[in-house]
């Protein structure tokens, strides 16, 4: 390296080393304090959860508001997610269930949301994720609920209807699909495998580039990657992380038809969040099948000034053309306006289920 460059870099790097040592010292002070918090919680409720999603989101939001830069605001969220994750792990271990195998987008969402100091529990299906959380094999789970290209993930919605679990949080992930194979080309490929949602999200690209190769639906993209790692005649659509996890090469990156293709995941568990100051509340509602019923069902929201951020319907499967409506609103169920609106909804609707209030992802 050039001598004058080295002379200039050396003191700056020494300063960085000094600052890092100070940060480390502070991190250990934080970790000790978190351990104390853990002891207080343990004394109060020996078997209760340590995880407090609303507090975690407040810590990050507070710092983002305090930040004067140049450290990027997004960096604060990812750095503190990991700091909190590590501190939390000193209080109690956290197992997160998600659709596997390794390298799935659900796994990515789980780690982005809860940080990496958790134990992953990859499951074979969404049903198994719910079962793991309901039965206690995992304290929390991560499931996709909607995609910006393909819409609702119906199985997750149906499971939310029947399960006692609560929604604890949300995480939106930019989904970049890659075409993967063992050899890194498509020479001997006889089929392309992926989750049906991924095949749908890449259909224009596939029709254009490989119209003659049959496509096969499998339970997840990372499962497709696992199968492709065992069979050189199969290609998979999955993430670059899955490529790495299963020893595959990228034939083509970013093949999703919409470059802004995003999936929204929900964190599920047994915790009831307190208000964080910037929350969302998710509900399932149903009304009898008659003219004007849906309009009347939603009226209490606007009457109490509560904004709806999502409205989705699923057939009730009773042959009566009746539907369950999945509604997200701004605010926490304890907020005065939301509370009043929900009380009216609960008394007027034929079916009312509060899925949970949770910090909105900013
Ligand atoms: O404040 C708490 O309740 C803590 O346990 C500390 C802490 C943190 O590291 O900031 C860790 C875990 C909780 O989910 C929330 C916050």
TrEMBL record:
<feature type="domain" description="Chorismate mutase">
    <location>
        <begin position="3"/>
        <end position="95"/>
    </location>
</feature>
<dbReference type="GO" id="GO:0005737">
    <property type="term" value="C:cytoplasm"/>
</dbReference>
<keyword id="KW-0511">Multifunctional enzyme</keyword>
<dbReference type="InterPro" id="IPR018528">
    <property type="entry name" value="Preph_deHydtase_CS"/>
</dbReference>
<dbReference type="InterPro" id="IPR010957">
    <property type="entry name" value="G/b/e-P-prot_chorismate_mutase"/>
</dbReference>
<dbReference type="InterPro" id="IPR036979">
    <property type="entry name" value="CM_dom_sf"/>
</dbReference>
<keyword id="KW-0057">Aromatic amino acid biosynthesis</keyword>
<keyword id="KW-0028">Amino-acid biosynthesis</keyword>
<dbReference type="InterPro" id="IPR045865">
    <property type="entry name" value="ACT-like_dom_sf"/>
</dbReference>
<feature type="domain" description="ACT">
    <location>
        <begin position="282"/>
        <end position="359"/>
    </location>
</feature>
<feature type="domain" description="Prephenate dehydratase">
    <location>
        <begin position="95"/>
        <end position="270"/>
    </location>
</feature>
<keyword id="KW-0584">Phenylalanine biosynthesis</keyword>
<dbReference type="InterPro" id="IPR002701">
    <property type="entry name" value="CM_II_prokaryot"/>
</dbReference>
<dbReference type="GO" id="GO:0046417">
    <property type="term" value="P:chorismate metabolic process"/>
</dbReference>
<dbReference type="Pfam" id="PF01817">
    <property type="entry name" value="CM_2"/>
</dbReference>
<keyword id="KW-0456">Lyase</keyword>
<feature type="site" description="Essential for prephenate dehydratase activity">
    <location>
        <position position="263"/>
    </location>
</feature>
<dbReference type="InterPro" id="IPR001086">
    <property type="entry name" value="Preph_deHydtase"/>
</dbReference>
<comment type="function">
    <text>Catalyzes the Claisen rearrangement of chorismate to prephenate and the decarboxylation/dehydration of prephenate to phenylpyruvate.</text>
</comment>
<comment type="pathway">
    <text>Amino-acid biosynthesis; L-phenylalanine biosynthesis; phenylpyruvate from prephenate: step 1/1.</text>
</comment>
<dbReference type="GO" id="GO:0004106">
    <property type="term" value="F:chorismate mutase activity"/>
</dbReference>
<keyword id="KW-0413">Isomerase</keyword>
<dbReference type="InterPro" id="IPR036263">
    <property type="entry name" value="Chorismate_II_sf"/>
</dbReference>
<dbReference type="GO" id="GO:0009094">
    <property type="term" value="P:L-phenylalanine biosynthetic process"/>
</dbReference>
<dbReference type="InterPro" id="IPR008242">
    <property type="entry name" value="Chor_mutase/pphenate_deHydtase"/>
</dbReference>
<comment type="pathway">
    <text>Metabolic intermediate biosynthesis; prephenate biosynthesis; prephenate from chorismate: step 1/1.</text>
</comment>
<keyword id="KW-0963">Cytoplasm</keyword>
<dbReference type="InterPro" id="IPR002912">
    <property type="entry name" value="ACT_dom"/>
</dbReference>
<protein>
    <recommendedName>
        <fullName>Bifunctional chorismate mutase/prephenate dehydratase</fullName>
        <ecNumber>4.2.1.51</ecNumber>
        <ecNumber>5.4.99.5</ecNumber>
    </recommendedName>
</protein>
<dbReference type="Pfam" id="PF00800">
    <property type="entry name" value="PDT"/>
</dbReference>
<dbReference type="GO" id="GO:0004664">
    <property type="term" value="F:prephenate dehydratase activity"/>
</dbReference>
<dbReference type="Pfam" id="PF01842">
    <property type="entry name" value="ACT"/>
</dbReference>
């Amino acid at each position: 390296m050039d001598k004058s460059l080295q002379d200039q870099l050396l003191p700056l790097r020494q300063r960085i080393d000094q600052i890092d040592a100070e940060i480390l010292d502070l991190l250990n002070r934080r970790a000790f304090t978190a351990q104390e918090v853990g002891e207080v919680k343990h004394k109060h409720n020996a078997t209760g959860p340590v995880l407090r999603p609303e507090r975690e989101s407040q810590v990050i939001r507070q710092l983002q508001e305090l930040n004067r830069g140049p450290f990027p605001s997004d960096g604060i969220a990812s750095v503190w997610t990991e700091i909190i994750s590590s501190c939390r792990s000193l209080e109690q271990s956290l197992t997160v269930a998600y659709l596997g195998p390794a390298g799935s987008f659900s796994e990515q969402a789980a780690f982005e949301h809860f940080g990496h100091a958790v134990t992953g529990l990859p499951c074979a299906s969404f049903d198994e994720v719910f079962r793991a959380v309901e039965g206690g094999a995992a304290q929390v789970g991560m499931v996709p609920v909607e995609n910006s290209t393909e819409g609702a993930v119906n199985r997750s919605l149906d499971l939310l209807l029947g399960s006692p679990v609560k929604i604890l949080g949300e995480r939106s992930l930019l989904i970049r699909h890659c075409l993967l194979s063992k050899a890194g080309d498509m020479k001997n490929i006889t089929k392309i495998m992926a989750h049906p949602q991924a095949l749908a999200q890449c259909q224009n690209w596939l029709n254009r580039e490989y119209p003659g190769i049959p496509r096969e639906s499998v339970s997840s993209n990372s499962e497709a990657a696992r199968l492709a790692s065992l069979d050189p005649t199969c290609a998979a659509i999955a993430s670059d992380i899955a490529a790495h996890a299963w020893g595959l090469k990228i034939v083509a990156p970013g093949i999703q038809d919409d470059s802004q293709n995003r999936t929204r995941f929900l964190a599920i568990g047994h915790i009831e969040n307190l208000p964080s100051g910037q929350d969302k509340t998710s509900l399932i509602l149903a009304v009898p099948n008659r003219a004007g019923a849906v309009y009347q069902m939603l009226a209490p929201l606007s009457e109490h000034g509560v904004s709806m951020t999502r409205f989705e319907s699923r057939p009730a499967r009773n042959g009566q053309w009746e539907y369950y409506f999945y509604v997200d609103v701004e605010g926490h169920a304890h907020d005065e306006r939301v509370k009043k609106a929900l009380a009216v909804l609960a008394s007027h609707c034929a079916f009312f289920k509060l899925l949970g209030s949770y910090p909105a992802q900013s």
